[in-house]
Fold these 2 entries.
Entry 1:
Amino acid sequence: MASQTTDWREAIFAPIGEPVLEIFHIVRGIGATFALTLYYILNGKKRRAAIFEQLYDIGNNSVVFIGVTLGFLGMILIYLAGYQAMRITGDLQLLGALFLQLLLRIFGPTITAMMLATRVGSGMAAQIGSMVVTEQVDALKMCAAQPIEYLVVPRFLASTLMSVVLTIFAILVAFLAGAAVANTAFNVNFNTFWNLSFIGWFDVIICLVKALAFGMAIPIIACQAGLVVTGGSEGVGRATTSAVVHCSLAVVILDFIISGVGFVVLGFI
Amino acid sequence: MANAEQIGGGALLVWEIIAHSFPPRLDGPETWRNLYRVGVKSFPIVAVTAILVGGIMVIQSGTYIEQYGAYGLLGWGAGYSIFREVGPIMIGLMFSGRVGANNTAELGTMKVTDQIDALRALAIDPIGYLVMPRVFTMIVMMFVLVVVGDFVALLGGAITSRYLLGVDMELFAWSVITYIGLHDFLHGLYKAVAFGFAIAVISCHFGLGTKGGAVGVGKAVNSSVVGSAIAIFVIDYFITYIDS
């Protein structure tokens, strides 16, 4: 009888507790990595060559990818908004101003960060995961070099800076692609489209805050996923997958929080 | 050159998939296993993403709605963008991260451990046995997940509008039902099917082309998710262009 009750309880509570514990372990690992990274940024050696290498890898190598995806996003959004505006008001004067504001507030930083999570996050997890399974990380520890100081800190600094730079680049590309579509499909000329009247300091600040937050979250989560790899090529594949998923989820969650706080703050000013 | 090689390889894979579809034959157990792995296991992550995306869209529309006091348009503003663009794109990106990457990793591991060659030695065609069930599964499950995800996103939007903007859920629902037609919903579903097919082809192509041990698997997954993301945006643009 007693064993039956435990089975019954296990059947109900085990499926609830298991994911909760799993999420708790992931969040704790990410928190520990983040704290150690901050500690080594303040106390560790500055290794310029490594940071520049990462800046090149994260920034320059993502330019084409982000240019293509965000360019298409800008064209998609203008089609969507243009047809709606034609159907409802027939007035396309404010198309450019609204488009730029939406790009700054949400689509620019969020989609750029999703793309960074895809390219940079999976790349970091794959690279560090391969180092773990080929025992290069153990070799680093044997040489008294901290893996977090040696591997995570340059990626963290580079990604934080490059996220902001790439977000600005992405907004420019998306805006120009949108302007081209507005010109060809809806006959809105560029001078009308280039309208800054809606943009306030609030939009610029929220864009930069989002870009910074995403740029800090992605390397920490991806490196953490790479550092805990166990077991050969299968493990590397699993780590890369979880890096992409966790980074994208973190982007969406952070976006929701920052947008919500921004909305409440906007109510006061 | 490398990019051209990948595009050509992907096109050849598409051709082989079409050749294998007549007559259609799927391996039953492998298809069921994939349906469970792809659909059921990705559901929580899609649901969480959708709730938050719905919330974000309501917050963004909310700033304009409050300016003009047109609360009846809130459901339209959020629902229209969720159904047509943001829902399929965000769910597609999560799907490519969760399922596409997983698929590339699995096939890549099989490739580097010579399991694909073992299949060939047993006279089992890897395209028919491994790729076809995955293509079928991803198209079906992407469709189902976008249907579910759209409504979860509306639910998230309704909750956010109630507690952040103070707009009643009834008004939100009324606005969605009044202003949004079936064609908006179907527009997102066309995209879901196209994204599912593209993600399946790209992830299988990079998985089967994996070279060089654990390092190669990581690189294959990286290129697979990058390729899927580009495909999602390009296909989205053309479907929006054709169907609007």
Entry 2:
Amino acid sequence: MSEVRYAVGIDLGTTHCVMAAVDLTASDRDAVVERIEAIPQLTAPGAVEERLMLPSFLYLPHPDELRAEDRVLPWDESPPFVIGELARTMGGRTPIRLVASAKSWLCHPGVDRRAAILPVEAPEEVARVSPLQASMRYLEHLRAAWDQQHPDAPLTEQDVVLTVPASFDPVARELTAEAAAAVGLSQLVLLEEPQAALYHWILASGGEWRKQVRVGDIILVIDLGGGTTDFSLIAVTERDGSLELVRVAVGDHILLGGDNMDLALAHAIRAKLAEQGTSLDPWQLQGLTHGCRNAKELLLSDASVECVPVVVPSRGSRLIGGTLRTELTREEVTRNLVEGFFPRVDAAARPAGRARAALTKLGLPYAQDAAMSRHLAAFLGRQVGATRDLEGFAGRLPDSATFLHPTAVLFNGGVFKAQSLLERTLGILNDWLAAENAPPARLLAGIDLDLAVARGAAYYGYVRRGDGVRIRGGTAKAYYVGVESAMPAVPGMEPPIEALCIAPFGMEEGTQAQLPPQEVGLVIGEPVRFRFFGSSVRRTDQVGTVLEQWTPEEVEELEEIEATLPAEDRQPGEVVPVRLHAAVTEVGTLRLEAVPRVGTETWKVEFDVRGEG
Amino acid sequence: MNDSKSSFLSRLALALRAGWRILVDGEFASGVQQLERGEWPSPVAAVAEPPKAAALRDTLPESALQLLTLLQQEGRFVDFLEENVTAYSDADIGGAARVVHEGCRKVIREYLHIEPVREEAEGARLTLPAGFDATAVRLTGNVVGQPPFTGTLMHRGWRVRQITLPKLAEGHDVRVLAPAEVEL
């Protein structure tokens, strides 16, 4: 294998993919040579263009829909599907053949993510793909784009950092790593997106970041992507006289993003048009969404503008006669967007209705409450104790505090290009802080809102080889398996379940948990399932800790896990006592193994078992 | 050059002509001497200035059609031009013009980097030195005398600094500016 030349960061986003690279041979300490990689893609039938972003859309055309020569890519004669800009455009006209938000499906616990289920609305004759396959196709496209531009340094031989939402559960992380492995990315690590954004901020500061934060700071990262919202808290500590960053908490997975905001505005305008007696077809709604996005950006960036015209072009060639004209006013943006998504609430507010952990309905579990500020309040409230046991933080937060007090905020995501939304969010947070007599949080500025994650990921690939600052933190949850309690059974009631901790909070990459003293029984030759739990607040539980009761706020139930012991030389049906052993791989995924009392064999415990259920 | 393939007779003729020139033309002789030593004479000396051909050429329609396709795709440009505007009120035309303006501007900004030829504000007085680029600056009005010329900037001019059009697939028919759409 040739020497690794680049650290490549890949942001495999819900709505866009971005790829950035640091040239390892040309970089030295703070002098980092990095660039965004252009991604060739079809932008119209037969037209290939290089763009910085690859829209994460996969279109499955009808055999007669596109001629083979109109699907060519620089590296492929004519793949039977379309990815990127053209996929998005074609999907706007023919949604039944469009795969979108594959990443959200990848972490949807209600479906088998290896099963060909997408597009959900597709008719029988369309050969559907699985969420895993869709992710693989995007990665394949990125790999081919890279290899074409770097024929001497194929991507499979570079250090690749792939970003995932901080709130991704162990299954979604494992599936992401699996997709990457399937396209040959073997030198891979996963990185949480809010951390990647912070790495980019460090890189963009050019060494000045040490002057902008100090020991005791708690940085809140608000990452509002196209389809998801992700919160993280990162504390600034000190070790051996130099600053260190520790990620102390991550938020829940919230399916709420910038696209929802544009759509909300479009629906408000549609309702206004409907009142005037004009109804829009889906194609026109798409044009309206596009128009609203531009109008919104103008209204939110220029306080002197009161209303912006929005036109919806006709579908037919008669442009003048058929075009609908309306306008978007400041009042509408304020009501629908600012008040709808960023309402001024107090710190005790909580989102209405939690998305259930396991939905059986086929559809994405979108956040039921669109108010970002309530989700933020819930996150900070739940994590009030996140720094309690952190060295140097004792006594910093008053006992009366009802939520964790951040001292600095980093915003990421294209939504915050609208400066007023950024100020609004910061204002709400500072109101909460003022109510508890805490100083206002500072704004950490200077990042590239669209491309920060990929660029930060590439930079992380660089620093993890050398001596730059790294964010520590490990796993953001402690994990538990459900074991039946030894209490006598009560007829008509399910036996009570206890949660046995098998992986403590904060396990670093490449480390193993201890073996728990407790054993569970596996039936030879039969798959055995266990209930599985995670907690983002119980930081002190050790392997072997048993919880007899807990609140849903504290411990949440994840998908079941499953272990199968092959029969081999044992008697099928026999019960073998095993202990469950947890490890975090070098890639950054959680791995569970069943270890029997005798012998040296171990068996992998599978997370993703929905398919057989 | 394919001298290696030329016949004996033509080489003989060449030897005679060259022999004569070596005797009468000193510069030619020293060139041949260099050749014989295995040194190539400098190309400037060897290549005679080609006569200036009348520089008129046909332009290729491909990229023109490609640009038109993009303008139609993003800004409904062809739709707009093909419509009879006299039948509509200015308000209707204004609504459509927004679509055209927004879309076409996006295309222009994305694919052609356009900048003004002159950075001065229109109406400003400026002086053109001798040897100014007559393609980029056009003189009008009282055009007499010798440079430097001093005058008023009436139009800043536009110049494309860079053009990057999408790559086209072999066999893609650029004459289709917008496909007909049939909804099933």
